[in-house]
Write a structure and sequence with these properties.
about 325 residues, mainly alpha, two-stranded antiparallel sheet, 14 helices, about 70% helix
Length: about 325
């Protein structure tokens, strides 16, 4: 009896095709997940940066009175806008004011944040939840709102501090005067920035194994010694991170002096570099100079951040590499 041959099976090709399709899906999955973020990055960061660089290399040429249809044309300017920005006395003065503002704000803010974090992490601290919330809450207040609140506290005519001081016969200096206004602006940044930095440092402290502290106390180390010899060296990377964030925020200060400016005549329209950019772009209608100054600020911020990280990288990441 003759046995009929069975038809060729298609199981193997189907399995191979299924494996190939699964491999394609897995290879495309990362790009699908990254697509929304990359789209937002290109539309709202890369393209604006590229357009700002393009505008910084252009200039407006006005012919006649500038009233005709084609009397205002855009021409190539090269690096002329950068030369004018770097040689502008207003820009150089604003850089000096922001440098003084940073010298006042950053060390004080990080010092207070470290002290508060160490106090909350100590074994004798009480009411940690309430204390954390109270210290962090000012950070949640927008900079414009905080500047308005402090601005009315600074104004002698409406300030309750000045009212009470006058009643008890104590002279209160005008903090919005030309010599003290930088302290007024730094105080607003200090009030809002301590909480954020404290949370970063406190989180790093909570990640330290408690056994290290217990061993140090058994060896006779006091709470201050534990903080100085164990806690602070271990959280040094967090201190470096908060310093970097604070430095970048200092270079970009804008909301505080801009909000206080209507309350006093001691804050110029170019008090900070970003205020000069705002004046050039929206008051003088010179977007080309404003774009060049913005690029200078961005490059300076990147250079300072990169240089600082290069300077402290060996110290910051020595624990990870050891």
């Amino acid at each position: 009896m003759t046995q009929l041959a069975s038809p060729p099976t298609t199981v193997a090709p189907r399995a191979a095709a299924s494996r190939s399709g699964a491999w394609r899906r897995r290879s495309l999955a990362p790009y699908v997940y990254l697509a929304p973020a990359m789209t937002l990055f290109v539309l709202f960061l890369a393209l604006p940066i590229g357009y700002a660089v393009y505008l910084s290399l252009r200039a407006a040429r006005v012919s006649g009175l500038g009233l005709g249809k084609n009397s205002r044309t855009e021409v190539w300017a090269g690096f002329d806008n950068y030369a004018r920005a770097l040689g502008d006395p207003d820009f150089l003065a604003s850089v000096g004011r922001v440098a003084l503002y940073g010298l006042l704000l950053v060390p004080t803010m990080l010092g207070l944040a470290l002290v508060f974090a160490l106090l909350l992490d100590s074994g004798k601290a009480r009411g940690r939840g309430f204390a954390r919330l109270s210290i962090f809450l000012p950070y949640a207040v927008p900079a414009v709102i905080a500047s308005l609140l402090w601005g009315f506290l600074y104004l002698p005519g409406v300030s309750p501090v000045t009212f009470v001081a006058d009643r008890i016969g104590v002279a209160v200096p005008d903090i919005l005067s030309s010599g003290l206004v930088v302290f007024a602006i730094a105080n607003i940044g200090l009030w809002g920035g301590v909480g954020f930095n404290m949370i970063v440092i406190y989180t790093a402290l909570k990640a330290i194994p408690r056994e290290l502290f217990e061993a140090a106390r058994l060896d006779g180390c006091s709470e201050a010694g534990v903080a100085w010899r164990i806690k602070i060296p271990i959280v040094t990377p967090s201190l470096i991170l908060t310093f970097l964030f604070s430095m970048i925020a200092t270079l970009q200060v804008f909301a505080e002096p801009m909000t206080l400016r209507p309350l006093t005549n001691t804050i110029a329209s170019t008090w900070s570099p970003l205020m000069k950019v705002y004046r050039d772009a929206f008051t003088r209608d010179d977007v080309y100079s404003a774009a060049a100054t913005s690029v200078v600020i961005a490059v300076a911020t990147f250079a300072l951040s990169f240089g600082f990280l290069r300077l402290v990288s060996s110290r910051a990441f020595s624990q990870e590499n050891s």
